[in-house]
Amino acid sequence: MCRPNPARVHAYWLGGKDHYAADREEAERILAVAPRLRDVALANRGFMERSVRCLAGRGVAQFLDLGAGLPACPSVYEVARSVNPDARVAYVDNDPVVACHGRALLAVDGAAAMVEADLRDPAALLERDELRRLIDLDRPVAVLLLFVLDYIADADDPAGIVAELAARLAPGSHLVLSHFSDDLGGPGGRRTLAASMRRHDIAMFPRGREEIRGLFAGLDLLEPGLTRLPVGRRRRGAAAPVAAGGTRVCGYGGMACTRTGTRWT
Fold first, then answer.
1. CA angle, 237 as apex, 231 and 238 as ends, to 5°?
2. Which of 152, 133, 132, 128 is nearest to 211 (CA)?
């Protein structure tokens, strides 16, 4: 493997093992331009764990992880099943390499599946046979959009994608969304970062807080609302990132419900 892959680069930042020398070199080149991205990736993973654990504790048994990337430890499936043994998880990604790897890992597990589909076509995604065999869309489902809309251009209407997904979910479903931002640098800072990432063949679209809040339009955003994600780091020997001294990074996360909202912790 001589060509870096974005999913394997991300796996490297998370401390995973599914990457090659080209991916590691590319990951370090990107960090030289945007050194906070590793912290952001870890913070996002911590946000996933807290959100999935919260929802599974409330009895949610179906999870749809869109733009899942390569498996990381702990996975959505592992977190959900640790709380709700009946939980089922469908992972979706449009990268054939990721889909192939995921199918190989999940081949023996009837409660999880990997689906190759494009988030920019929500209707087609939700009708995929392998997804519908596992996920019953007539019952509540938690849809995870974790640092994936960052790669959707304005021209592809990320807010419209979220709205269409939400419209097709059963009452009582949830949307968990996180998004990279660079508010400290303002619009100029975001443009600089996006231009730097494009030089590495990564189309990334950082957005401001209000733009990200707008992605929840029409949904009940649960307390404490849209919040900055705490920096993530790994203790020696630990599988999961933990918060580092309350420091914040330029990423936001929130959870919404398709009906009456309540506080989540």
1. 45
2. 152
Q: How far apart are the C-alpha atoms of 243 and 231, rounded to whole Å?
A: 6
Smallest Cα–Cα separation from 41: which of 1, 20, 14, 22?
A: 14
Cα distance between residue 151 and residue 84, in whole Å: 31
The tens digit of pLDDT for each residue in 204-260 reads: 787 888 999 999 998 999 988 999 886 544 444 443 334 344 445 568 999 999 864
* pLDDT, tens digit (0-9, with 9 covering 90-100), for 176-194: 999 988 664 555 555 666 6
Contact 74, 239 (CB under 8 A): yes
Under DSSP, the state recorded for 170 is: P
Q: For residue 253, give the 3-state DSSP assignment.
A: strand
219, 254 Cβ separation under 8 angstroms: no
Distance CA 182, CA 196 (A): 13
Domains of the chain: residue spans and CATH = 36-186+211-257 (3.40.50.150)
Vertex 88: Cα angle to 83 and 92 (nearest 5): 120
- Pairing relation of β-strands 227-234 and 241-257? antiparallel
Which residue type does 39 have? D
Tokens of 231: 């920096």
Is the link from the previous residue into 224 a cis peptide, with omega within 30 of 0? yes
Which of 196, 133, 122 minimizes the C-alpha distance to 159?
A: 122
The string of DSSP letters for 68-88 reads: --S--SS-HHHHHHHH-TT-E
d(CA 95, CA 169): 25
Farthest CA pair distance, the chain:
50
